[in-house]
Amino acid sequence: MRTLLVADMHLSHDTPELNQGFFDYLEQTANGADALYILGDLFDAWIGDDLLDTPHPLGDVAREVIARLHKLSSDGTTVYLLHGNRDFLIGQRFIAACQATLLSDIEEVELQGMPAVILHGDSLCTQDEAYMAFRQQSRDPEWQAQILALPLDQRLALASSLRMQSGDANATKADAIMDVTHGEVVSLMEHCGVTTMIHGHTHRPKVHDLTVEDVPAKRYVLGDWDAQHGWDIVVEKTDHTAPRLRQFPLSDPPSS
Ligand code: MN
Asked: Considering only CA atoms, which of 42, 33, 37, 31 is closest in space to residue 5?
């Protein structure tokens, strides 16, 4: 009885080792789990599900991701996915092809009986005002429809320019503005009535202790994957169920 959570794989056609590492993780680690939650930024960029109809190399990667997730799901692991700030254009077609379930941006869940709130994490980075404005615009269905109506090459160009200005947090931007706003974290946990939050996005893997309504709480931050290492959180049903944050070499992902 275990549940796994991952985020920020940032798969692309430029990352063959990483892609293979993720596929090995699905086969060796996720297979046999009750559920796998993908908390956003599965892809480094996604510009519309019609990519699946094109011979573009990102389409090739996506078709393999679909085959692998579909197999995991068929073998009995429930696959959940929520949007990241890079792949928010993933649509129902992609989700259905994976035999996965698309969650809303902020989801209250029970992980092996433990209540938690899960999210990508970008919505908590409220000090980055430029990004918050972009985020609001990019989640507007009309804006999305306009983008999806553009020819594929224009959308690919747009994706790479957005990537540069997306306000995507990483370790080299060691700036408080790129991290979550503590007050946002606390108020969301209060709102959801939980003492556990799990997210990715900031690429600052860590377990944070905090207090929510005078009660000890924990915020788990997943790490981003690279060609050598992956990160996950495992929640196993025990007497004292608690999430565990793990880093592992992609050459040897955990066997459970
Ligand atoms: Mn992100």
From this structure: 37
